[in-house]
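Late entry, evening session. Most of the bench is empty. Finally got around to the prediction I had been postponing all week. Sequence below, unchanged from the version circulated by S.P.
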Amino acid sequence: MRVLVLNCGGSSVKFSLFEMPAEIEIAKGSVDKIGGPGAVSNFWLQGEDKVSRSLSVKNHEEAIRHILKLLQPLLAEMPVGAVGHRVVHGGDRFTGTVRINSEVLEVLHACSQLAPLHNPPAIKGIEACLAVLPEIPQIAVFDNAYHQDLPPAAFLYALPYEFYEKYRFRRYGFHGLAFASMTAQASALVGVAREKLRIVSLMLGSGTTANATMYGRSVEVSTGFTPAEGLVQSTRCGDVDPAMLIHIMRELQLNPGEMDEIIYKKSGWLGLSGISVDMEELERSAAQGNSRARLAIEVFVHRAKKYVGAYAAVMGGLDVLVFGGGVGENSPFIRRLICTGLEFLGIILDDSKNREIKYGLVSAPSSRVKVVVVPVREDIVIARETARLAKGLPVSGGESCRFEKG
């Protein structure tokens, strides 16, 4: 079976085509800057170089039609059997992977206010696929499903309990697909079953989330009711005093929409540094003496380090610390800053490995806690879940992800 995996952003569509159940990635690519004057198509065929070209793409439907045209020679020999969509927020209505119908779409629309940067473009991609491929099963794989087993002590907020009963205000957590991938790879690298490990995963990209997976189950996660809570992110603020936000709204006479703009798009590394959403650029600026860039990095690292310690306490210890995401995979500098001072937990980096290795163990032989760096492969998790549901097999949004490098 061939599975098309789609990850739709506000102005982009990323795609991968897999042969399942062998989990062979046949092709991948993206359409970026949708609706703008400089739209770009990127396409990789397995074993060949990337092909990029400019094009005119007005909306997500046109982007998906373009993707299917790129894939047509491959689909002529075997058509797409199902399409898997990454969906960030399904509330607590969906605890796992589902086939998309009108009822599912209605729930996704209702959850859009909880993930305003993610759900609306995902819905656009789904609706475009329903128009272009009406006979093909469309499958939603939820980013928050990995955290559906959180204990009440972890997912409840200390607000009046009826807020949870009536409105389902609770911690949902995100980047679940990433954590399914990261924890499975970490388990393989250290040679111990995930069900026997206490793992803290730091998904450090433009969006950032910390997770504690204890003996195969997510028991804590830094993102909450929305993806804005938790670690400091590229443009999202992470943890703040909620009363301060009310005070800011009163002082500056902001409406909820304007406050949303600050929380989601004007805060984080960008808000602190005043420079960029690119951590690599912040590292260069800090090295050149820019105090605001250095401050943004320090706040980011401090928050991440605090979560590692807190999650070790929740689990009663720590066996593996995992770094993933664009920053987690590519910044030895950030990994070193986060790990420095955590020696009391048994975390000791090997400096040379940390500088040189992009996949694998970077901890010293004497480190009681194994520190690993892994590529995040959400697409493989989505492809597996999609193929299983399309074939009527059991699925689970939080199921372990086997990963073979290559």
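Two things to note before I forget:
The chain has two domains: 2-142+381-390, 192-373.
The first helix runs from residue 60 to 77.
Will write this up properly tomorrow.
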